[in-house]
Batch of 4 targets.
Target 1
Amino acid sequence: MDLGSINPILLLASIMAASTPILLAAIGELVVERAGVLNLGVEGMMITGAICGFAVAVGTGSPATGFVAGAAGGAVLSLLFALLTQVALANHVASGLALTLFGLGLSALLGQGYVGVKPPPTARLDIPVLGDIPVLGPILFSHDLMVYVALALVAVVWAMLKYSRAGLILRAVGENHDAAHALGYKVVRVRVLAIAFGGACAGLGGAYLSLVRVPQWTEGMTAGAGWIALALVVFASWKAGRVLLGAWLFGGVSVLQLNLQAAGVAIPVEYLSMSPYLITIVVLVIMSADKSRAPASLGRIFHASQ
Amino acid sequence: MRLHLEKRPQPSRRWTDLSPLLAVVITMLAGGALFALLGKNPVEAISTIFWEPLFGEFAFYYRPQLLIKGAPLILIAIGLSLGFRAGVWNIGAEGQYIVGALSGAGVALAFYPLDAWVVFPLMIMAGALGGWAWGMIPALLKLRFGTNEILVSLMLVYVAEQLLAAMALGPMKNPDGMGFPGSRNLQEYPAAHNADLIAASGLHWGVVAATVAVILAYILLGRHVLGYQIRLSGEAPRAARFAGVNPGRLILFCLGASGALAGLAGMFEISGPAGQVSIDFNVGYGFTAIIVAFLGRLHPVGIALAGLLMALTYIGGEIAQGNLGLPAAAIQMFQGMLLFFLLAVDVLTNYRLRLAPRPETA
Amino acid sequence: MTLKSILTGAVMALGLGTTAAVAQDDKTKVGFIYVGPIGDGGWTYEHDQGRLAVEEHFGDRVETVYQESVPEGADATRAITQMALNGADLIFTTSFGFMEPTINVAKKFPNVKFEHATGFKTAPNVSTYSARFYEGRAIQGHIAGKMTESNIVGYIASYPIPEVIRGINSAFIHARKANPDVQFKIIWAYTWFDPAKEADAATALIEQGADVILQHTDSTAPQAAAEKAGNVISFGQASDMAEYKPSPRVSSIIDNWKPYYIARTQAVIDGTWESQQTWDGIGPGMVGIGEITDAVPADVKEEALALKASIAAGEYHPFTGPLKKQDGSDWLAEGETADDGTLLGMNFYVEGLDAEIPQ
C-alpha cells in the first residue's frame, strides 16, 4: 500500500474533468424538474448527443461545431418527449423510459459508420497566468473549455432561478401549474422550453463523453451516466449549487476508488460502488427535515381545461 | 381556429379499446418506413415481427417463448399497476427483481445438493420476501421521513445491481466453475429447478403465478374494499382521506405487494429460464414492466395483453435480426416508437379533439 | 419423452429437419451469437470481422447470420435455438455466459455443430475454442519492462477471473525479466466495457506514476488518456487500435478469429467436423501481435519479435520455471512449464506482484 503515490492536486483536477458530463446532464434535468416535468429519458438524450456531436465533429473537423450539434441532437430528441407529455398529455415516467429506449436505438443506428474513428482533439485551455499558480493552477485552470462552460451553466441556472423573472415563472409552473395558469403564465410553453434546455444540456454532456472524456464512439458508451445525472438532481435537492457539489462527490467516489486501488489498497469495489446511491438516499432522508423538497407539481400532467 | 383538447366527462370506452390498435397500426407504418430506409423490405420486416412468432413455420417453438418472456413482465407490471393507480410510484422494480432472485437462489444454493420437495416452496417464499423487503425500504422511508419513493426505489436498483455483481463474483460463485463468475446452474439441481410443467410448453411456475396475479388483481380492484381505496386515492386523494383511507397503510401495501411480485418474478426467472446468478442476470424486465403497466392502461387484463405484445416484439424482433439482418438497434427503435404511439394516442381516451376558436387565455 | 424428442419430433413432422439438409445442401449456413453490439470496437467487433472473413473466403458457398447484443440466459437459449431451427449448420456462440445455453440447445439439435468461445463444457456436437492471450501479454510485458522509466506499469483489469489473472502474471513475469525493478499497479474496473471508467482508471494510474498502461478492457479510452498525458505508452487490446499509432499505442494484442472460423466452416462443408477443445496462441495465428511501432527502440523491438517467434514456434512457454507463487511457495521447477489445467483455473499471483486478488 502506498497512499503517498496519490497526488491530491492531480486527483482533484481529475475529479473536475470526470464530473463534467454528469454535471451538464444534471443541471439540464434540474431545470426540467423545477418546471414540474420528470424526464427519465436523460440517458437516451445523452447518447444521442454523444453520436450527433461525434459525427459532426468528425465531419467538420471542428469539436466546437460538434458540441453545438450534440446539444441540438439532445434538444430535438427531447422535443419528442415534450410532444408526448405536453401535447398528448402522456405519463412522464413511461414517456421518459420510452425516450431512453428510442435514443439508445437511434444512436446505435446513426453511429454505425463511426466505430474506430478518432475525433478531432479538443484543445486544452492553457490559461497563461492563472494556470501557473501552484496547487490551484492545475486543479482549476488546466482544463478544456467545456469544463468551464459546464461551471458557467451552473452559475447561470442558479442566478436565473434565484433572481430572474423567468426563473420565478419556471418555479411557479413547477410548484403549482394550475395557479400559474390562472395567473396567465403559459404553462405548456414554459415546460417545452425547459424540456428542450434539458435535452440540450444532456446532449452536451454526451458530446463531452464522446469527444473529450473517452474520446471515441461506441454503442452504449454512456453506460448509465444519464441515470446518475437523475440521481444527482435529487441528491442536490433541486438546487443548482448542490448539483455541482453532488457531481464532484459522485465523480470523486469513482475516481478515488480507482486511485485507492492503484495505490494498492484492497477495497471491496462493488460495495464502494454502491456508496454514491446509498449516500443519495441518506441525503434524501436528511433533506426531508429541510424545507427544500421536490417541486410540488413534479411529474403531474397539466391540462388547461378548467 | 385551432385544434383543441377537450376533457371527456368519462373516459371513452370505445377509444380505450381502439387506441392500442390504432397505435400498433401507426407503428407499423412508421416502423415500415424506418426499415425501408435501412434498405429492407418493410412488409417482410413487419410481418416477420408480428406474424412469424405466432403463425410462422416455427411457431411451435416461439409461442411457448412468448410465455417465458411475457410472464415476468406481467407479474411485475401487475404489482406496479396497484401502486400507480394509488399514486405510489415504484420505479425500482428492477432492484426488487434482482433481490428476489438473489434470495431465491441463495436458499437453493444453501440447500444444494439436498433433494427435497421443500426446497422450491422455500425459494418461492424467499424470493417474495426479498423483493418485499427491498420494496419496503422506500415505503418506510416515505412514511417516516416523507422521502420521494420514485427516487429512493430508483437508487436501490443500482445498489441491487452492485449486490448482484458482488454475489456472482463472491459468495454465490460456483465452486466447480473454474473461477469464472456465476453460480451453479439451478437447472441442473432438480429440487430447485423451475422447469416447464408440461415439457416444451413454456408453462413454468412463473407463468402460473402471473396468471394468478392477473386474476387476483382483477378481483381486488373490482370487488375488494382495498381495491376501491386504491382507486380512490389515485383519483381523488382528498376524498380518499375523508372516506377514511389510511394513506400510510396503502403505501406499505402497494410498495410491499409490487416488491413481492417483482421478487417472485426474479426468483422464477433465476431458477428456470436464466438458471444461474450471473453479473448480467437482469435484463431490464423491471423497467420494461413499467411500460407494460401503462400500455395495459393499469388494468389487469390490459396488462396481460400488453405483456404478451411486448414479448411478441422482442421475439419477433430477434427473428427479424436473424432472418433479415436487421440491426438490433433498429428493433430497439421500433419498440420505442410503439411505446411513443401507444402513449400518444391514449390522449383520445380521456380527451376529445375539437376544432375550436382560439381561446382568450392559454 | 423428453423435450429433445418432442422438439425433434415436431421439426420432423413439419418436414423442416430435412429442408435444412436438402434444400440448402449447396449452401452452408453459419450463425454467430454476439454478447455485445458489433459496433463495440472490441470483443464482438473482432468476432464479426471473423464472420465477414468467412463470407469473403467462401463467397456463395456459405450464408452467415448473426444476432447481436444477446443477453445471457433464457434469451441466449432462444437466439441459438432460432438459428438452429432456421437451418444453421454451424453456430458460434461468442461469450462465456453462453456456455449452458449452448450445451442445452446442442442436445436438441444433434445434427447442428456448435462452437462455444472461452468455455470448458463440450459435447459430441459442441467444441470449445479460446485464445492464449497470455502469450501476447508476455511480449507486452517485455516491452513494458524495457520502456518504463518510472518502473511503474499500470494495469487496467476487468474482473478477477483466471483469464485476466493469467494475463497479469504473464505480463509481470516478462516485465520483471526485462527490468528487475519494475512494479505493477493494478486497477480492477469490474466491467469489460465502460469507456468513461476506463479513462478514469488510466488517468489514476498515470497520475500515480505509471508510464506504461496495459489494459484488459475493450475500449480505446485508456489510449486517449495516455495520449493526453504524453510520455506514456499503451497497447491495443482485442483490436489493433491503430488510430493511436505510433504512440501511445506501441503494439497490440489482436483477437484474430478469422483463420479458425474459416477452418471450422471448411470442416463442416467437408463433413470432417469433430468435437474438440482448441486453445490456440500466436503460432496458429489466433493471437495477433499488432505492429510494434518506431516509438519502441530498435533493440527492444528486435527482442520482442524474437520472443514472439520463439513462442510461435513452440520453443518457449511464457510460464516456464523456476517460478514461485506470490506467497513464496514453489510453483514450477527450473525448466518446467505450466500445464493447461492450472492455467485455465489460475487464481493466484506469481511472486513479486505487490497486490491482492479481490475476493
Note: Chain B has one domain: 43-345.
Target 2
Amino acid sequence: MKKMKAVTFLAAGCATAMVMTGCNSESSGSGDGSGDGEQKTIEFMHLWPEGSSKDHYDIVNEIIADYEEQNPNTTVELEVLSNEQYKEKLQVTSTSGELPDVGMTWPGGFLEPYVDGEMFAPLDDVLDEDGLRDSYVEGTTEAYEVDGSTYGLPLELNVAQVFYNSAIFDEYNLEEPETYEEFEEIVNTLKENDVAPIALGNQDRWTGSLWYMYMADRLGEDNLLNQAINGEASFTEEPLVKAAEKTQNLAANGAFTQGFNGLSDQEAKSMFMSEQAAMYLIATWDLPNYTTDETVSQDFQDAVDYFDFPTVEGKGNQNSYVGGPGVGLFVSEDSDVKEESKDFVKYFSEKWGEKSVSDAGVIPATKVNTDNVDLPDMYLEVLDDLNNADNLTLFADVQMSPDVAETHLTAIQSLFGEEITPEEFAEMHDEAIEEDQ
Amino acid sequence: MQSLGASEMNKVMSNKLMITLYIFPALFLIAVLIIVPLILTGYYGLMDWNGIGSMTFIGMENYINAIQDAAFWDSAWHSLLLALFSTLSLVIYLAVSMILASKIKGADLLRKIYLIPMLLSSVAIAQLWIKVYNPANGILNTILRGIGIENPPSWLANPDVVLYAIFIPILWQYAGFYILIYYAALKNIPESLIESAKIDGANPLQIAYKIKLPLIMGVVKVTIVLAIVGSLKYFDLIYVMTGGGPSGSSEVMASYMYDLAFSTNNFGYGSAIGFLLLIITLIVTIIIRKLTASKEDIQY
C-alpha cells in the first residue's frame, strides 16, 4: 500500500512534467495527414483573430472559401493567433522544423534569420507570373528581398504623413506648408500661442526616426540615405549630418510635446486626438481613426487633414514617401505542398488587393484603382499619392539589420534628447553598419 | 500517514529506495524546468546564434565581449543601484511594520492598504505611474506646478532622473510584501518578553531595537537576500515604462538581455548576458549570506 502510493505519486509527477515540457511539439502537428495524393491540405497561419481584427479575419475567410471552391482538391487549414503569440509560435516552430505551409512575415530584419536558415521559399517565380510584380507599389516587394530573391508577398503598405488639426490651423491662419521654412513658421506661430505644435512619443523611438528619415530623404535627394544605410555612402556626408542637425534643432526648439522621450506613441496619439497638439507624423495605418472609426468624434475627424512632408531648403520631392509594407505572405521551404502553397499565396495577394481597402480600410501593397471604390476622401487622396509616388524610402528599422536598427533607434533618442551631436549621430551609424558587414 | 507509528515512519525513511522515490519527482521537475535551461543558456552563450537558424560555435567570444561591453556594465550598475535602494527601503518597511504590530488603531485596515500594490499586476502599476509621471498632464507635475515650480522635470524623458523615477513605483510595489513578512514575524514574538521588558523599564525604542529586531533577525536576513536578488533580476516595470530608455539610461541587466536576444536577434550574446546575470546574482547572494551570517541563533 505504501509503495503503491509512492509509485502513483511518482507517475503523476512524471506525467505532469511531460505535459509541461511536451506541449510544444504536440500542438504543432503539420497538415500532411491526407497522403492519398488527391486531397491536399495547406496549413495557413495568420495573425488577425476574429476578436481584434474582425474585418481582416472575414476577408481571409472569404478568400479561402473562394479558393477552395475553385480548387476542390485543396483545403486550407487555418490557425489564428494574436500578434505576439504569432511571433513566438513562428520562432518555436521554425526551430523544430514545423513551420506552417503558408504564413505571415514582416519584411527586412525580421525575415533575414528565416532566410539564412533556408526556411522560406523564394517567390520570384510567383512574382514573374502574369506580371504580378508590376501590380505592386514601387519599393514594396523589394522590402522582402534578401540577396536578390524575394521571400514574401507584401499585403499592406503604410506611408508616413503629417496629419494636422485644421481647426487649430484655421484659428491661427495657417496653411499646409510646402517647404520646411514655411513649416518652421507654423511651429513658431503655434508656440507663440501656447499650442503644442507636434505630438511625438519618442519612447518608441521609431516615431522620432520618421522625422529624421524624412529630413534625410529630402536633403539627401538622390537616394543618399538609402546608399548610406546599405553601406555605400557615409552618414557623415554633409546632407545627412545636416538632416540630423535640423531634426535636433526642431526638438530643441520646443516643436514637440514636452517630455517626448518619455512618452509612448500611444500617449502622443491621444494628445493629438484630444486636440492638445496640432500635428502628428504617423503612418497611414492610423487612417481609420481619422475617417471611419465611429468611437472618434465626428468633429475631430472633420478637422483632421494631412500634408506631404515639405521639401527642405528647396531639396527633395514631396512625392517621395517614407513608409513600408507591413506583413506579407511566405511559403515554407520544407512544405509538402509547396506548389499548391505558391498558387494559394498568389491568389490570396491578388484578392486581398481587391478587397482589403474597401472592406477593412487596409491599404494593400498592390496599386488600387480609385475610380470605382467607395471610400472616405482621405483614403482616396492617400491612394492617389501612392499611385503617383516617385520613391518609397523604407522605414529605417525595416531596412536595417536588427543590430544596426537598434543602434539607429538608440541614437535617435539621444539625438532628440541632445545627448549627442549630429556628427556623433552620423559616426554611430557608420560604425554599426561597418561592423555588421 | 497519521496511522503510522513513529518507529514505522523511521523504517520507511531509512529505506534508500523510498528516499529516492520520494525526492525523485521534485528533483526531476527542478532538473527539467530549471537546471537544464540554465545549462542550455550557458551553452547558447558559446554560440553565434540568431535564435532561428543554425548555430556556430565561437567559444568564449560572447562572454569576452560582454565583459568589455560598457552598455552591459551600465545596466549592471543600474541593477546594483536598485538593489541598494531596495535594501535601504527595508528599514522603512521594518519601521512601518513595528508600528503596525504595536496594536495601534486601524492596524488591520492599514496592513491591507499597504498590500494593495502587491495585488496589482506589474503592467497595471506601470500604466498607473506612466500617467502619474506624464510631463504635461500627470498628477505629479500638475501638483508641482500648483506649488509654483515652473519647469518640473519630464520624469521618464530625462536621462538623469528616469532611473530614480522608476525606482519609486518598484519600491512601492513591493512594500506590502515585506511589511506583511515583518508583521507576521513580529506577531510571533511572545507577548511575555515584551511585558517583562516593559516591567524592567525599557522604552518603546529600546524594545524595538534590543528585543524585537534581534528576535526577527532571521527573517530580516531572508528579506535582504530576497530584495537584492529580486532587484538584480528585475525586469517588468522598467520594460513597460521606458523599455530601458531614453538612450539606455534606465536599462537594467534583464532588460538589456531581453533587447539583445529578442530585438536584435543576438540570441547567443543575449544568452551570455543572461548567464553572467546568473553568476553575478549568485556571487552577490553568497557575499550577502557571508556578511549576514551569525553563529548564535537567538532562541525564545
Note: Chain A touches chain B through 47 residues (CB under 8 Å).
Target 3
Amino acid sequence: MSKTTSTTETDRTDTERVGTTTGETDEHVRDEWRDYSFDAPTKIGVEDLDVYYGDDHALDGVSMDIPEQSVTALIGPSGCGKSTFLRCLNRMNDRVSSARIDGSVTLDGQEVYQEGVNLVELRKRVGMVFQSPNPFPKSIRENISYGPEKHGDIDTGLLARVLGRSDEAAREDLVEQCLRDAALWDEVADRLDDNALGLSGGQQQRLCIARCLSVHPEVILMDEPASALDPIATAKIEDLIAELSQEYTVVIVTHNMQQAARISEQTAVFLTGGELVEYGDTDQIFEDPESDRVEDYITGKFG
Amino acid sequence: MAGAAETRLVSGDTSRSNAVAAAAVALAAVLFVTSLAALFEVITISDPFAGVPVVTVLGGTLSLLGVAVITFGVGSYVGAVETEPSRSAGLVAAVVFGVVWFAVGGAVTSRVLGIGGVAWAFVALLTGAVASAVTAVPREDIGSTLPAGAVTLLAGMTFLTGSVGPAWVWELEFEQQASLTAEFAIPVVTLFCALLAGWAAAKAYGGFGARGRKMGAYLLIYLNAGSIVSVLFILIAFTAFRGIPGLLNGTEFGLGTGPTVFGFALPVSIPFVMHGVSLFNDFQGVLPAIAGTIWLVVGAVLFAVPLGVGAAIFLTEYAERGRFTQVVEVATNGLWSTPSIVFGLFGFAFLIPRFGGGKSLLSGMLTLGFMLLPLVLITSREAMLAVPDEYRDASAALGVSKWQTIRSVVVPAALPGVVTGVILGVGRIAGETAPILLTMTGGTFVPGERTVDVIGGFEFVSTPPFVANPELLRATTALPFQLYALITAGVGLGDNVSSPTEFQWATALVLLLVVLSFYAIGIGARYYFRRKLDYE
C-alpha cells in the first residue's frame, strides 16, 4: 500500500468524523496510543515505527506500548501490517533483504534497533510462534532441546558424554517442563523419540510453542497460531495462551475477532495502509471504539 | 450388453465382445514382447516354434490380430456391439496412420512393383492421404480400426506367404553397403503392428469414445514402460551371461584356497577378481583395475562432495541472489555438460606436471573429482532450495545463528538430495575412460602385486610434509580403461589371456558390478538419511 493511498483514506475518515470528534484534528495522532496508561509496567515500547518493503510502505508510523504479562491482540484485515509489526519486535524482518525499518522498539527500555544488539539474546528473550506449525523434521525431544543445545545451555554431545559432563538429566527435565507448559506432555510422553512431523496439526503447533518456551523467553510473539487448526485444537491453543500470559508477555496476531475478544487484555486495530488506528482495552475496543472505522471493521462493514 | 432401458452407468464389462477385445489386446502385448525378444536375438526368427518357423507364427498371429481389429470396427459401425464412438478418430491418429501408410505404400510400390522415380513418391503420398482420410473422416470406430487392422493384416500376410522370409534382404545400395536383413526388419515391423493393432483393440475394448481413448493410452504407456524396464534387464542379463564364464574361470572352494585377508584365508578363490596378470598365473585377473576404480571413485567423491556441498551452502544461504549466482549457475551447468576428454586434457596439462610429472592415481582422482563437482553442486543446491524456509525461520526465532541453522537443520534436510546427486555422478565417473586414459593409466595389465594400496601406502618421512604416499603418485589402471585397451588395442590377445573374449566380457561384468555396488551404497545412504527425516 502506498503512502498516498493511506493519506487519502485518513482524509476521508476525517471528513466523515467531523462533528463527532472530541476535539481531535487528525485521528491517528502518532503518540496517541503511546501514552495509553496500563496498570502493568511496559514490556515493549514502539515509537514511530515505519517499515518499507522496497517501495511498499508496510507500516506507517506505529507507536504503542505493550504491558508485561498480558495478552495483546493485533487485529485487522489482510495486508494491514500486523505480521510485519510482530516481526519487527524480534527483528525477524532483518532476514527480509528488501525491508527497511525506521523508528524505535524498546524491550525493557533498551533499544532493539541499535548498533551492537545481540540478536541471539534478543530472540531468546522474544520468542516466536508461526502461522503454520513448523517443527523440525527431528524427534520431539530434539525439537525441544534444539535451542538450548545450540546456545550451549545443554550439552549432550559425544564429547560431553565421553568426558562425563553430559546434561542428559537436565535435558529430560527441560523437555518435560516445556511440554507440560505447552499442555502436550500427556499426549506425547511415551513417544518423545518419534518424528515431530507425525503429530497432528494442533499437536505440532503446541510443540512449536513448547520449543519456543525451551529458551526461557520473556515475550512470545504469535503470528495467527491457530489459523491452520480445527476448532478443538484452536480451543486448546487459546487455553494455553491464557495460561502462558500468567508468566509471559504474549503478543498475538489474529484474524479471528472472537478469538481476540476471548483471549486478550489489550487489542490493537491495524487498518489498510499499515496504520495503527486504535489501541486499548479489549472490552472497550469491542464495545465502544472511538474510531468509526474500527467500529465498521469490527461490525463487519469494512475489511 | 446393457439394454436401452438400463442405466449407462454400468455397462456389461464381462460381455463376450469385450472378452474377445481383451484377448486381442493380450495377443498384441505378447507380439510386442516377442518382437522385442527377437530384436535382441533372444529368439531367432528362422528357428521353428512347435514345428513351424517363428516367422510364420508371427505372420499368422499378426493376420489374426488384423482381422480381429477390423471386425471390431465394422461390428461397432453396423451396431452389432454397443459402443460410444466419437465423430472422428482425431488429428493425431490421422497423421500417424498417414505416415504409416505412406511408408507402406512406398515400400510396396518400390520393392514389389519395382516402380522408381517420382511415381514411387506419388503412389506413397496417395496411399498416405487415403489412410489419413479413412482415419479422420468416418466415425471413430472405423477410423481407428481399419487403417491399423489393414496394416497389421498386410504385414501378417507378407510374413505368412513367405514374401518376406528369414532369408529376405533389402540391399540399401548406399556406399556403406548397408542392408536391411529379415532378422532386423521382421521384429521391427511386428513391433509397430503390435503397437497399432493393440492400440486399436484397446480402444475397442473400452467401447471407443473417451473411455476407449483412455484404454488406448493405457496400453501404449504400459507397453512403453514395460519395454524400458525390460531393455534395462536385458542389458544387464546380456552382460552377465557373457561375463560369468570368464569371471568364474578357475574358481575353487575350500579352506585355505583363497588369498589371505587380514590374516585370514578366504574359503573361496576367484582368480579373476583376486589376481592381477602375470606370466606365472594359471588364471589371469583384474584385481589391480578393480582396486584402481574403487580408489578413483572414493578419491573423487572425497574431493568433490565437501567442495560441492560447501559451494552450494554459500550460494543458497549466503550469496545474494543476483547476477553472480546466475553466472555461477550457468557455469556449473556448462561444466557438467563439458565433454570428459576436455577434463582429461586439463588433468594432463595441469595436474600431471604438478604431481610428479607422470600419470598418477592422484591426478586421476582429482580429474574425476572436477567432473563430479558440478553435479554435486547442482543437486545440493536444488536440495537446499527445497528445504522449507519455515525451518530457517523457526531456527532464527530461537536465536540460533545462521551457521548452526545450516549445520543442524538445512544440511540434514538436504542430505537425501545431495546423496542422489552423488549417486548419479558416481555412475558417470566410474565408467569414464577418456580422462583416466590421459591422467592415470599405465600399462594395460598391472601385475597383482602392484595393486594400488592407498591406505598401506602412507609413510612418514623426515622432511615436510612429513607424510608421503607413493601409491597415490603411481600410474595404475582402472576397469573402463582396461576394457577399452583390451578391445581396441587388442592387448592380451597373445599368450597372456587364454580366452580374450571371455576376459573382456568378464571385465565388463565386473565394471557393471562395481558401479552397481556404488549405487547400492548410495541408495542405502539416501534411505538412511531420509528415514531420519520422515515419520514412519
Note: Chain A has one domain: 3-135+199-298.
Target 4
Amino acid sequence: MRGEQINLQNVIARSASQVPSPQERTGGIDRVTKLIDVSRCIGCKACQVACAEWNDLRDEVGNNVGEYDNPLDLSPNTWQVMRFDEYENEQGNLEWLIRKDNCMHCAEPGCLEACPAPGAIVQYANGIVDFNSEHCIGCGYCVTGCPFDVPRISEVDGKSYKCTLCSDRVFHGLEPACVKSCPTGSIMFGTRDDMLDLAETRTDFLRSRGYDNAGVYNPEGVDGTHVIYVLQHADKPQIYSDLPEDPTISPMVSAWKGVTKPLASAAIGLAALTGFLHYVTAGPKEYSEEDEQAVRDDEARQRERESGEAQDNREERP
Amino acid sequence: MSLAKSDPYLRRYSLGERLNHWLVAISFVLLVLSGLPFFHPFFWSLTGLFGGPTMTRILHPWIGLFMVLMFAIMAVRFFKESLIRRHDIQWLKQIDDVLANRDEKLPPVGKNNAGQKLVYWIMLGCIILLLITGVMIWQPLVGEAMPITLRRLASMGHAYLAFLAIITLIIHIYSGIWVKGSFQAMVRGRVSKAWARHHHDLWYEEEMEKERKHREISRRHDHSEQETP
C-alpha cells in the first residue's frame, strides 16, 4: 500500500463541509478492504482482544448472561463484538453463525452525512471512515445516521467512538490488529480488488460444499462497504444477528440532511430580505392625521356629554 | 377637573406580559443562534457565541427548556385574545390590502389581528412539538434510549419545525418594525389612542368604553362624598 502515510491530503471527504476535500492525490492510493469470512470463524475472540490491546481499550468487566456474546454489545470501549447465533438450517441441522460486528466503513457513510461538526468524521482515500475526536461535539447525529448501529457515545467524555479499521496501523503498512490476530484466516485484509476476488473464491468454495446461497455481503445501498462478509446464507443476512438486508442511509436522515439544509437556509435569508424589500416598497404602516383627529373628536363628544350630565345632576337637586 | 385632560395613551401590555414576552424573545433568539450551526455548516461560526461547538450542544437544550417554560406562561396569558374570530378570516382574505397598507379597506380588528393570532398558534404548535422532538434527541440525557426510527423522525421533525418557527419569527420581528409603534408597545406597554384606533379599532372602542365607565364611577363617587356631610 504505497503512499499510505498519514497525510491530510488523503482526506477525501469530511463531515459538514460544503467545499470539496483534496481529490488530486489518487494516483497510488488503493482502496483497502477487510474481508470477514463467517464460515471460517471459530468464535475464539482473539480479534476482540487484539482490538482492545492495540487501541488501548479496557471495557468494564460485565456479567455473564448465559450467552457466548461477551461483551453483549458495542460500547465506546468495545469497537467490535462477536455475535453468536444458533440457526437451524433447511435440513434441520444446527449451524452456529458467528459474526464479527464492527464498523462497516461504508463508501457512502451515514454517520458522515449526518454529522454537523466540520471535520469530526473523515473518509480517507483508502476508504477508511474515521472519527476525529478533536472535533466531535457529542451530539449523537452519527448514531442517527448510521445504518448499522455502530457508533457509541462515551459517558466519560461525551464523544463518539467506533472501529477505526486501525487507520494508524494501515497508514504504516500494517494490517488491522484483528486481522493479525485471527488464527483461522477468517479475517483478511488487502486492497479492495484483491479482497473482492478472494471473497468470490471463498463463495465458490462454499457453494461447492453445498451452501447454495453463499455470497458476499457488500451492500449496494451504501455504495459498498470497506468491511465485507462472506456469508453461508447471503440470501438471509438477517439471521446473522440482524445484519440489515439492504442497508441505506434512512430517507428520514436524507430528508433532514440532504437538499433540505441549503434550501431551508436560503429560505431563511430570503424571508429576511423579503421583509426589507417590502419595507422599501410599501413603506411603514402608520396611523394618520385623521386617526388623531377622530380621537380628539371622540373625546370632545364625550366631554360634552359628561359635562351635560353633570349639569343635569345639579339642576335636579333642589 | 380631571375631565379636561385625558390620557393620550392606552395600556396595551402589562409589565408582567412585557417581561414575559422579552424573556421568550431573548431565549428564542439564542435558540436560533445555537441551533442553526447544527442544521447547516454555513452557520458553524455561531457556535463561537456560546463558548465553542460542544458548549453550544450542551447549552441549547437548557435554553430550550427555559424558553418553553416562559412560553407556557405567555401562552396562557394570551390564549383568550388569540382565539380566531369570524372577522379575522375576512382580514386574512384581504392580506393584499394589509401588505399594501390600504388600511382603510380592512375589516375591524380587536386586540390582536389575524396575523398576530396566527403567530400565536403556529408558535404554540411548533414549540410543543419542538419540545417533544428536542427531548427525544437530547444527548446524552435521552438520545440513546430512543429507538433509532423515532430518533431519526425526531431529528428530521426538529429541523423542519425549527425552520417553520424561524420563518414565523422573521415575519413577527418584521411586523414589529413595519407597523410603527408596535415595538414600542411591547417595550413601554402603551400605545397612543390614535394608534389603537387605526390598527385595532374594536379594541380601541372597548378601551374607550372602559374609560368612560371608569370615569362615571369615579364621578358618582365624588357626588356621594359631597352629599354625605
Note: The radius of gyration of chain A is 33 Å.
